[in-house]
Amino acid sequence: MLLDGLARLGRSGIGAAERLGRAHLLLGAMLMGAGEVLRRPRLLSAQLYNIGVLSLLIIGVSGLFVGMVLGLQGYITLVQFGAAESLGVVVAAALVRELGPVVTALLVAGRAGSALTAEIGLMKATEQLSGLEMMAVDPVRRILTPRFLGGIIAMPLLAAIFSAVGVLGGYFVGVGLLGVDAGAFWSQMQAKVDFQDDILNGVIKSVAFGVVVTWIALFQGYDTVPTSEGVSRSTTRSVVHAALAVLGLDFVLTALMYGD
Amino acid sequence: MGRQRGTEILVGLFMAAGFVALFFLAMQVSNLSAGASTEGYRLTARFSNVGSLKVRAPVTMAGVRIGRVESVSFDKDSYEAVVTLRIDPSVDSIPDDTFANIFTAGLLGEQYVGLEPGGSPDHLRDGDTIAYTQAALVLEQMIGQFLFNRAGGD
Hints:
The complex is a heterodimer of chains A (260) and B (154).
Chain A: H1 2-32, H2 34-39, H3 41-51, H4 56-78, H5 87-125, H6 128-134, H7 139-177, H8 182-192, H9 195-222, H10 228-258
Chain B: H1 2-29, H2 32-35, E1 41-47, E2 58-61, E3 64-75, E4 80-87, E5 99-104, E6 111-116, E7 129-130, E8 132-134, H3 139-153
Parallel strand pairs in B: 1-7, 2-6, 5-8
Antiparallel strand pairs in B: 1-4, 2-3, 3-4, 5-6
């Protein structure tokens, strides 16, 4: 009885280690094919369309509302201290440092990551990946690498759009509806938000999230059990793992960037 | 072929929108446009105490920003703080007996350098040193002195 339990624990541990190893082998294989994909930009542009263009609507709308909520909440708190002019700083710093990269990564994991996992998983279940291999086409380089690079390129651009739209949303609520002075809103923001510390670090964060989210999504699809149930489980796991990884990694990156 | 072209145009639009957003963040939201200016001329001022004056803090005259603090360093021979100010080139008529103070914006606000013009007909030039300075007021010291005076008065 006890030995059975121990064996089960050991089996799951070995399984996890094996999956981790396969994930890293896949990452290596995808990176090896990167040069080839960059020479065939058609493959890349199709994936940028899938991951980037099709996510624009949800990113834009979410960014607008997150910025508007920040403007409203920030105003309610700041006005008690007579510091309503600092609203611009609050909105911009929160968006550029944290909310932009993180919320974008979570949305992309849900919108595009799940789709990638399902697509790759179904390709495996219907043996299209094996078919490619039969024709001496490497499915990792032909199918996975373009999606991987597309995700890495699209993520920081989407995060920048999210933050920019969010700042405009905060401006609309703070200046347009609540009557904060427009000049103070922008000048305080420009005085306190640093290009290198805030904006570049935000871009670095979102590139890291792009790697993690697409890597998890592609690996879950590539490693799926090739049945309809397996694909559905992989899709769920892809979103859950990506969300957890993004939030955990965000803490680590924040500690590295701002902790000193 | 037409569909492929449509995709490429949309991807191009997406990437352009992303770069425009980044540019907007860099220029409008951050201090890149305001802080990176290397225009203007330099003045130095020596203070016995700069409090918590930071690089890029505003330099004002009559409450209007006319420059920024470029660097704050320590002179180990005279035990003074050496503050380099970068003044906008349009403000080229600061008298050479100008008084430099370190003020605080509000009770809890940021510290900044305030210049009070003197009456001299000669103007400060690039590289000159402001002779008259007033150190930052440290709140704890003031409270301490106030309490000390009250105790002594009784």
